[in-house]
Design goal:
Blueprint lengths: L12 H12 L5 H22 L11 H6 L1 H5 L12
């Protein structure tokens, strides 16, 4: 079966597996699907902070702190940062 996340399979096989799990559980176990979706996002953001030198890690290492850190938001497309001024 084709997945919406097949584009991840070559470069990020583990993220691909997590995302496919979220996708496969969408209808049969939506709560579990949400867990896997969140987990996949967390792993992707952790990877960014580990591999992109322009990101300054915040004091707290949780998803909320990581995605609201200014260097992270500065690298989003305009309007994606959750800030009305974008």
């Amino acid at each position: 079966m084709t997945s919406n996340f097949d584009f991840l399979s070559n470069q990020f096989p583990q993220l691909h597996n997590y995302a496919k799990e979220a996708e496969s559980l969408t209808y049969s176990a939506p709560r579990a699907s949400c867990f896997y979706a969140r987990f996949t996002l967390e792993q992707a953001v952790y990877w960014l902070y580990d591999n992109e030198p322009y990101l300054n890690p915040p004091y707290e290492n949780n998803l909320g702190a990581l995605i609201h850190e200014q260097t992270f938001k500065d690298n989003l497309k305009p309007g994606w940062g959750g800030d009305d001024s974008d």
